[in-house]
Amino acid sequence: MKDTGVITGVRVTHSTGSVDDVAAASTREPAAVLGTLAATDGVEEAFVLQTCNRAEAYVVTGDVGTGKAALAEYGADASDEARIEMGHEESLEHLLRVASGLDSLVLGEDQVLGQVRDALETAQQVGTASDVLEDAVLKAVHVGERARTETDVNEGVVSLGSAAAERVAAERELEGATALVVGAGEMGLLAARALADRGVGRLVVANRTVANAEHVVDELDVPTEPVPLSAVDTVVSRVDVVLSATSSDDLVVDASALADAGDVTVVDLAQPRDVDPAAGDIESVTVYDLDALEDVTEETRENRREAAAAVERIVDAELANLLEQFKRQRADEVIAAMYESAERMKAREVETALSKLDLDDEEAAVVESMADALVSQLLSAPTKSLRDAAAEDDWSTINTALQLFDPDFEAEGMPPAVAAMLAESDDGTASESPLGAFTDDD
């Protein structure tokens, strides 16, 4: 039987805080965070998504209160305004918006979809994502794929790397310029391609592992030189543009190295920062970070307004489907538990009746068939009502049904998620029930 707990989430993103807030909320070891969350009392599943402009964590628990307690420390070092807590429905909607590119700094960016897939794979490998979060994240991936195949939301500038190149191109002539790209990961490769597309004459790619820098070199059609990360301080003195996007915990571009570099434009795409903030105080050096790309990304949003509206409609429709799916699963767990209780009672009573009657096998089969039919017919109407109640989040009605058919049902092993859902009702019981003829008065 599928677990039907509720999702609680916490997020710190570019839209709620600064790059420093995101850095403060992030950890370099998502797998370790997943393990810690999964070991927390009441947590059934966990999922963490961390990129250069977001730090998000989600858990599945029996109720939202338990989920908030489990996530109390995640993102706690960010400012209060930047840290946003999310309940079940808001968490689902946000995941869909993230994967579709609606919540990206660059509207419709393609990179985030792969990051969502990678984060799910990590959670699956650690063993913290199963029924609920797998359904939610896979639905988000599906929405992201629909957004990019059915709309033009990812036309044009589709990555932070290309947004950074656009920012630099707006400030200085790139034709024939020399650029240094620090970091040979996906972001570095995208940035290098974007700079090459805008006509830089020469590229230097620095990376801790030179072989990875050589891989980027092989991807480009402009003269390119791979160098080790240790050579950055020397190289910056002979370039016009520096674009840095490593995963280092430490600064990799020192302000002192830029002091005598002349007129240099620097874009720091890393989180935490790659470039010494003191570099911004040097008169000949212009430094941009993720927060400074807003004007480029806002122009992108304006150009894609119609496509974004189409993606919003996809998200709304898919969210409604997902919520309905989860509600049906919640109702089905309660219904299955009710049928299990009724089957136990039927089996007990049939066994008692047959022990008092002298029946042959054929006659005994008739009695058992009659008992099956009675259970099926008696539970048919309340089954429909329970599904309707779940669709309307009417858990007090579900509680009434359980108490009606078996007052001791909870003691016999009610599923934790069901007990938690019932606890969400005002007093744990219902004064009225839409179950028609099945009332205490009858």
Give short descriptive properties of this protein.
3 domains; GluRdtase_N_sf; elongated; four-stranded antiparallel beta sheet; alpha/beta; six-stranded parallel beta sheet; Beta Polymerase, domain 2; 442 residues; 10 strands; Rossmann fold
TL;DR?
With 442 residues, the protein is of the alpha/beta class. 51% of the residues lie in helices and 13% in strands.
Report on the architecture of this protein.
The two termini are 33 Å apart. The chain has three domains: 6-156, Glutamyl-tRNA reductase, N-terminal domain (Beta Polymerase, domain 2, 2-Layer Sandwich); 160-293, Rossmann fold, CATH 3.40.50.720; 323-423, no CATH class. The model is unreliable at 409-413 and 425-442 (pLDDT under 50). The protein has helices at residues 19-25, 30-38, 64-70, 88-100, 111-126, 131-150, 160-171, 186-197, 210-219, 232-235, 255-258, 294-303, 305-356, 361-391, 395-405, 416-423; strands at 6-13, 45-51, 54-61, 84-86, 178-182, 202-207, 224-228, 241-244, 264-268, 285-289. The strands form two sheets. The protein has a six-stranded parallel beta sheet, covered by helices on one side. A four-stranded antiparallel beta sheet has the order 2-3-1-4. The protein contains 16 helices and ten strands. The protein is α/β, with parallel strands linked by helices and 442 residues long.
Layout of helices and strands:
Elements: E1 6-13, H1 19-25, H2 30-38, E2 45-51, E3 54-61, H3 64-70, E4 84-86, H4 88-100, H5 111-126, H6 131-150, H7 160-171, E5 178-182, H8 186-197, E6 202-207, H9 210-219, E7 224-228, H10 232-235, E8 241-244, H11 255-258, E9 264-268, E10 285-289, H12 294-303, H13 305-356, H14 361-391, H15 395-405, H16 416-423
Parallel strand pairs: 5-6, 5-8, 6-7, 8-9, 9-10
Antiparallel strand pairs: 1-3, 1-4, 2-3
Helix pairs in contact: 4-6, 4-13, 5-6, 6-13, 7-8, 13-14, 14-15
Family: Belongs to the glutamyl-tRNA reductase family.
Site (Important for activity): 94
Domain Tetrapyrrole biosynthesis glutamyl-tRNA reductase dimerisation: 311-406
